[in-house]
User: Fold this.
Amino acid sequence: MKTVIHTENAPAAIGPYSQALAFDKLVFTSGQLPLDPATMAFVEGGIKEQAYQSLKNLKAVLEQAGAGTDTVLKTTCFLANMEDFVAFNEVYTEVFGTEAAPARSCVQAARLPKDALVEVEAIAFIK
Assistant:
């Protein structure tokens, strides 16, 4: 049976979807944008600031589900501009490290919601 995951510590859904769904011991998150959950506005700055906020939002959703960044198995990362790949990786490495980092796909998207620079989704296991 699936369980809807919701936290006030991450942005509310801006469409007909859940922040995440849990099934058995797995959690599947929706893509997390670099929105401040309190204001629903983008954080100021460039790719690094937006990447940090997206990953902070992802962490909040995972923790609400009983998971965490240490239980992430796979991420899918969407960048508005692949020229931001190196800068994005710097922030991503701060969160996930390099030892046993999650499997990952990282692609350039033609356009992200609200013209974000980055969006990140994950599959993790619940502790």
Q: What stands out?
A: The mean pLDDT is 97.
